Amino acid sequence: MPIVVNGTAYPLPEDPRVSLLDHLREHIGLTGTKLGCNQGACGACTVIVDGMRVLSCLTLAVQADGCQVRTIEGLASEDGALHPLQNAFIAHDGFQCGYCTPGQICSAIAMVEELQRGDPSYVTANLAEGPNGAMRQEIRERMSGNLCRCGAHNGIVDAIEEMLCGDAA
Amino acid sequence: MRMFDYRRATERTEALAIAAREQARYLAGGTNLVDLMRQNIEAPAALVDVSRLPATIEERGGHLLIGAAARNSVVAAHPVVRARYPMLSRALLAGASAQIRNMATVGGNILQRTRCAYFYDVAGSRCNKREPGAGCDAIGGFNRYHAIFGTSEHCIATHPSDMCVALAALDARVHLVGPDGERSVPMLDFHRLPGETPQIETVLRPSELITAIELVPSAAAANSAYRKVRDRSSYAFALVSVAAGMEIVDGKIADVRIALGGVAPKPWRAARAEDILRGQAPARERFLLAAEAELAAAKPLYGNAFKTELAKRTIAAVLGELLGELNGANA
Ligand SMILES: Cc1cc2nc3c(=O)[nH]c(=O)nc-3n(C[C@H](O)[C@H](O)[C@H](O)COP(=O)(O)OP(=O)(O)OC[C@H]3O[C@@H](n4cnc5c(N)ncnc54)[C@H](O)[C@@H]3O)c2cc1C
Ligand code: SF4
Ligand code: FES
Ligand code: FES
């Protein structure tokens, strides 16, 4: 089975050592997804596989056989309009060099579904009830797998808060 | 990374057959194994992908059975786990990041390997776990993150899992299937202390597959918590962690479960502290005394001596929190 990236099917690599990250960048030519640490520690390579955010550096491309992959290139609508979160990042200075940005944005988009499902996080006060209130704290904890070397975290949290709750403070 | 064969198994008999024939290693989420292969610490000739084997979470006779391929994030969010085993949910949520929890599986988490920096430093350090008999550069080196219980002169590494600490406190069982059939092992007996053979980390036999973990409900499990103390408040391994549950009947501690992470080569059950507390009236001073008695057996090194005090205070704090919740619920 192929893997489907942003709606287009691509064959899997012959070599099982190829990571999903390298497959996306080197073979498919989608260089929006970034290589940071290559060992799971920075989140730069985050993509969305079958609706779940994962690290493409620690995933072998063959493991994603038959899966639907969504990357930063697949977020804008067909007429080129940016995703609301992309606009919010621009409005809130959510980036400086922009290197971590594709991972941050993919991570945040999948995170919204986790919140909507009511999945708890380590900072959720009541596990049985799920997340409510303390949204900023929830966003910070849930986005902690994405590190920004430029320190744009406050702008990033503002941008996500705006997407989730309307205008951020 | 060395070349390897990759095969995917869709059922356990197939996984077992391939593993036995090709001396393959199982691959689940890959978040530990792929990393170790990339660092040239592990170099299996073949991988059997078991990530699409059963990942069901179901209640059977009141017990909860969690399939080995269940993702950490799915287990943490499961309503039964949240309601009846909150310490497990919290322990999972304290581990790694959301992206990693989405890939990491229960089976893989149990078998993840130590984060000892010398173990990872293939090019520059001696490590008995990687190369038996080579020596251990952590002893006498930078050992802030290392163990204060259960060590030997051959290895002082900690087991890094958060989930396993909760499973140890919950008296979980690990279900296995191998060439000789099925068996189940208590979580507490699954990992081995280093002794003279630090490279042998568990009681798992060649090509044996973890199929599920089994949890038994209890009042102490339902009133439980997990607290992780680390260098930054998220996305870091534990310096010390505490999984604890407590049941109070008629003003006395009827049941108490305490396990520690970050302090030993395996999840460490604080049996001594539990013995002191059982049958007693719950009180803060008593929590501290019990914690002190447990930590009296610790053998800290110069780099990690702070863990003794940290563990004491964290045990007392978590038990205090549980008591507060019970009192709050009764009020
Ligand atoms: C940056 C980073 C931070 C992390 N932080 C934490 C943390 O704070 N706390 C924590 O607990 N963990 C942490 N982890 C570790 C992570 O939780 C583990 O890597 C993960 O749980 C392993 O699961 P997996 O399914 O990916 O295993 P894999 O990497 O696929 O496999 C791990 C091992 O288990 C074996 N295996 C897998 N499934 C089975 C099975 N069913 N039967 C027999 N053998 C099997 C494999 O052969 C391999 O030896 C972190 C990891 C990273 C990369
Ligand atoms: S503590 Fe254990 S894992 Fe670390 S270097 Fe020593 S032998 Fe290796
Ligand atoms: S590049 Fe994948 S987590 Fe850093
Ligand atoms: S904007 Fe530079 S790394 Fe985040």
Describe the structure.
- The complex is a heterodimer of chains A (169) and B (331).
- Helices cover 32% and strands 10% of the residues of chain A.
- Chain A is an alpha+beta fold.
- In chain A, helix 2 crosses helix 5 (153-165).
- The model of chain A has no long low-confidence stretch (mean pLDDT 96).
- Chain B is of the alpha+beta class.
- Helices cover 34% and strands 20% of the residues of chain B.
- Chain B contains 14 helices and twelve strands.
- In chain B, the strands form three sheets. Chain B has a five-stranded antiparallel sheet.
- The radius of gyration of chain B is 20 Å and the shape is globular.
- The chains are: A alpha+beta (169), B alpha+beta (331).
- The A-B interface holds A 15-17, 19, 38-40, 43, 46, 52-55, 58-60, 62-63, 65, 107, 111, 114, 117-122, 124, 127-128, 141-142, 144-146 and B 1, 3-6, 8, 27, 29-31, 34-35, 38-39, 47, 49, 51, 73, 76-77, 79, 82-83, 86, 89-90, 93-94, 96-100, 102-103, 234-235.
- The site of one FE2/S2 (inorganic) cluster has 12 residues of chain A, from loops.
How many H/I helical runs of chain A?
A: 5
Q: Return residue spans of chain B where pLDDT drops below 50 for at least 5 consecutive residues.
A: none
**Assembly type:** heterodimer
Q: Quick one: overall form of chain A?
A: globular
Sketch the major β-sheet of chain B.
5 strands, antiparallel
How are the strands of the largest sheet of chain B arranged? 4-5-8-6-7
Largest protein-protein interface: A-B, 36 and 37 residues
Q: How many DSSP H or I helices of chain B?
A: 14
Unreliable spans of chain A: none
Query: Describe the biggest sheet of chain A?
Result: 5 strands, mixed
Question: Termini separation of chain A (Å)?
Answer: 47 Å
Order of helices and strands of chain A: EEHEEEHHHH
Structural class determined from secondary elements of chain A? alpha+beta
